[in-house]
Amino acid sequence: MEAASGAANDAAESTAAEDTAAEPGTGGREPRVGLQLAAAVVLVGAVFAGLWVVAGNGGDSTSSDGPAKCSPARETDSPKYPALCAALNRPDLPVLAGVPKERVLIAQPGMSAALGPGLTKDNYGAAEVQFSDMYVQVADNRDVEVDDFARPGDPTVTRTPVLGHKALLYRSPTMSFSFSLGGGKSTTGTGSDAHSLAVAKNPDGTGGTFEISIWRKDSAPIDDAALYRVAEAVLPGLQGWVGVQAG
To answer: CB neighbours (10 Å) of residue 221?
Structure first.
C-alpha cells in the first residue's frame, strides 16, 4: 500500500515548511504481502504524488469548500485506480472512518509506477484518501489470497468474516519521515502501526483480495471497527466482488 504525504496541505502556505507523515513500511520486521508491496514506493511515489496535487492538478483535487475529488488517473496509474477511488471517496467516508468532523483533503492513487519486481499495475491497484492525520486506502490484489497475509502464531491477526467472506485483520509497522519543502535534510524513523483488513473477493476465499488499510501520521489510536465499517460499505460496489448467495 502506499501513500500520500501530508505536504500538500502546507505547501500552498510556505515552501520552506517542514512536514511529517507515516507510510507503510517494514519497520525492520518481515512484512506481510500488502504492506511489502507499498514499501518500495514510499519515498518516491508518496511524497511527489502529494506535491503533484498542489502544483499540477488544476485545482480539481482539493477544495476549501468541500472534500477533495479524486485526482485524474495518469498513464502510469493502475487501470483499477479510478473505480477504487470513486468507491472509497464517498460522502460518508469521514463517518465510516471515525472522523465525522473532518473532510477528505487528498484523494489519489495509492501506488506510483515503481511497483517493484513481479508486480504490475494490472494485477494490483490502490486508491488512498487523506484526512488531517489519517490515511485510508483500498487496494485490489488480484493474485493474493487472504492466507498470504498471515504469519503463524502472530498475535496481531484477527480472523472475522466480512459480509460472509473470509477476512483477516492485521497490523504492520509504518515508516515516518519528515522533509523540508525548502530543500532541507529529510529524516526517517519508525511510526505507529498501520491496521489492515484483507477480505477475499469470493465467499469461498478465492479470487484474490480487497484490502482496507488505515494509518496515521500522529500517535492517535486506530479503531479497528472503522476498517469493518469502510469494508462493508465500499467492497460490495467494487468490480470483482462476489456476494454471498441467499439460501
So the answer is: 8
Q: Looking up cell 519521515, which residue turns up?
A: 177
User: Who contacts 174 (Cβ-Cβ below 8 Å, separation ≥6)?
Assistant: 22, 23, 24, 25, 27, 190, 191, 192, 193, 194, 215
3-state SS assignment for residue 17: coil
Taking only the tens place, the pLDDT of each residue in 189-245 is 666 788 999 999 999 999 999 999 999 888 789 999 999 999 999 999 999 999 877
Q: At what angle do helices 224-234 and 81-88 cross, to 10 degrees?
A: 120
Q: What is the pLDDT of residues 8-64, one digit of tens each?
A: 333 333 333 344 455 555 444 444 554 443 432 333 333 333 333 333 333 344 455
